[in-house]
Design goal:
Number of strands: 11
CATH architecture: 3-Layer(aba) Sandwich
Order of helices and strands: HHEHEHEHEEEHEEHEEEH
Strand order of the largest sheet: 3-2-1-4-7-10-11
Structural class: alpha/beta
Number of helices: 8
Helix content: 25-40%
Low-confidence stretches: none
Oligomer: single chain
Strand content: 15-25%
CATH superfamily: Translation initiation factor eif-2b, domain 2
Radius of gyration: 19 Å
Distance between the termini: 36 Å
Number of domains: 1
Mean pLDDT: 93
Largest sheet: 7 strands, mixed
Length: 249
Amino acid sequence: MEEVFRRRRDAGRDELRQALLAEAQRIHEEDIASSRRIGRLGAELLPPKARVLTICNTGALATGGYGTALGVIRAAWERGKLGLVYACETRPRLQGARLTAWELLREGIPFRLIADSAAGWLMARGEVDAVLVGADRIARNGDTANKIGTYTLAVLAHRHRIPFYVVAPTSTIDPELESGKEIPIEERAEDEVLAPYGMWFAPKGARAHNPAFDVTPAELISAIVTERGALRPPYRKAIADLLGTASPR
């Protein structure tokens, strides 16, 4: 958008507005097409009647209209490959309960909303075939920052030998970041934990620690699914090849 503005800075107001609108529509259509490619490629990784677990919201409400990890779920459902979705409620902001559950219900996709802490027990009981998560940022070595609780799911999936897939467009990859150690983690307000939505559950005087994201080490990730293909370890080389950059020794 900034580039369009720079190129058309001398145009009249109406012409500039139309140019910006056209660029916004192009970006929107490109995002949907990219998400559909991601969905198709990710669905190919799932077994028939897959039972998948996801966290936070990675659907139409979080993207241009189709979704990343939820786009894979949507594509698998459209192809008859999906059995059931376990949607983590995603505390403390409850994006899974408020947003993902709404999207799944609207699409008619079978799901169960679960407490975040129930994920490990479901995996131990053999009720999860794959974990699908989005990404807010991916370092050049494959370390991935995402909603708080993602790292926990990755550790649990690794313990129970369940595929753990990160689903994100290539624009999420930041080649300037050597590893996840360089990704800043936002610390949000204590009241989101102590008094979610204005309802106090903790005793007055209690303090809370509320990181919004965590970082999943690359070695816990089975594949990174992008619109240009599914990347496999070693991620440093796979990402360098994808972006056309030199892989440092």
